[in-house]
Amino acid sequence: MNRQATRPRAEQGQLSIVLVDDHAIVRQGLRSILDREDDMRVVGEATTAAEARVVLDRLRPDIVLLDLKLGTGSDTEGLELCSEITANHPGIGVLVLTTFLDDAYVLEAVHRGAKGYVIKDVDTSALVSAIRTVARDESAFDSRSASVMARSIRTAPDEPALTEREQGVLELLATGLSNRVVGERLFISETTVKFHVRNIMRKLGASTRAEAVYEASKMGLI
Amino acid sequence: MNRQATRPRAEQGQLSIVLVDDHAIVRQGLRSILDREDDMRVVGEATTAAEARVVLDRLRPDIVLLDLKLGTGSDTEGLELCSEITANHPGIGVLVLTTFLDDAYVLEAVHRGAKGYVIKDVDTSALVSAIRTVARDESAFDSRSASVMARSIRTAPDEPALTEREQGVLELLATGLSNRVVGERLFISETTVKFHVRNIMRKLGASTRAEAVYEASKMGLI
DNA sequence: GGGGTGCCCGTCCGATCGGGTAGGTGCGGG
DNA sequence: CCCGCACCTACCCGATCGGACGGGCACCCC
């Protein structure tokens, strides 16, 4: 561990990689795995989005392995970082690496320019092969991610996007409040609440509020 | 990596450890971290509950680091394994290691004899210290886990346990079916469905079916 | 045998939901 | 300037829910 890493880029032919993950255990695991590959070199690590911005700006690696769930903060922190990287550093290939498969997240990550999406429970050879794929500027999605995308394309054309108001109504719905009480909380009439509830159910493809809550919960909206 | 590990037990004074986790990355990370500690030695690994049974039976380590989420199968696989280990191998200290904090899981793990509960995003020193704590046969819970337990003690005396029937009703509830239709699906009368729904709501502390679905979703029941 | 629990069923009723109709406002982009 | 969109409101109505009574049967454990 006494190697110097002063140079921003790895040697010729080597892929420089930065790890962004708040789990020390995972970072250590990735390091161990990647250090065994002759053509790869982990040149930096970051544990938060803020730290990642600094590190990436300075090191400009070929690849960044990005965990979308960063810390306990906002769930979109990792996604926003993903957008930023692809916008500001087109040369950096973003390979998203998460713990489990979340349909909404896969799609969001793709929209935001991730070149690959890998679940952490892949074996090590699949991971390094995904990295090489992204390094060739191709897309790397494991079979499960791919099926998620395929499914979403044929089932959900676009719009599960709830408006701000609907989101607020939805959150109160989940706590078991009636339309009338939700209206009182949000200072709107019961009629309006019903209006929003119906729109929520329509957008989520649910036929009752209970199902809407279930779908929203699955999609991570609440 | 060419060391032999033929002997089931580590040398005198060393803690023998077995890793049970389906993520290769995590296992590798744990190995790297623990191998740096002079008094610890990773003597085996397992990726599934079945594999773990064999490995633990043969190696009988001092400590097992157990990820509760094993594979894509049943969510209770890890918990059941936890029970088995504490029942069949009282000498093995179970330190549960999961990706994120799930209130219900922490409690379940404790009930089933886990001596410690650590979230994967702790830093490495906290992890090794937790291992040493468990090795001394003390309890090791990080502050967040401890607060979950404290909270559950004062808010939920015991019984979120749903009966099999209630579980079935709950799952259909989440799909937005009415009491009548749920009854048709389960070949019971609508009245009986209402009976179960009310019991579900009571057990989950919910006042409507929507809230019940939300709570159940949070608790990982559906 | 009593007591606990899971499971099953019924009737009654007021409150609420789901869905339809009809409108209005404000704000931004083509 | 008009269109779309988010947001708000009102009336109506049948279906459903949530909760309150009442009952039953089978099981296991003390």
UniProtKB/TrEMBL annotation, chains A, B:
Organism encoding this protein: Prauserella flavalba
Segments forming domain Response regulatory: 16-135
Gene Ontology biological process terms from the UniProt entry: phosphorelay signal transduction system; regulation of DNA-templated transcription
Lineage: Bacteria, Bacillati, Actinomycetota, Actinomycetes, Pseudonocardiales
Classification via SUPFAM superfamilies: C-terminal effector domain of the bipartite response regulators, CheY-like
Highest taxon listed in the record's lineage: Bacteria
Keyword Phosphoprotein belongs to the record: yes
Pfam families: GerE, Response_reg
Domain HTH luxR-type per the UniProt entry, residue ranges: 155-220
Listed GO MF terms: DNA binding
SMART domains: HTH_LUXR, REC
Mitochondrion in keyword set: no
Keywords carried by this UniProt record: DNA-binding, Phosphoprotein, Transcription, Transcription regulation
Protein's UniProt name: DNA-binding response regulator
Signal sequence, renumbered to the chain: none
4-aspartylphosphate PTM positions: D67
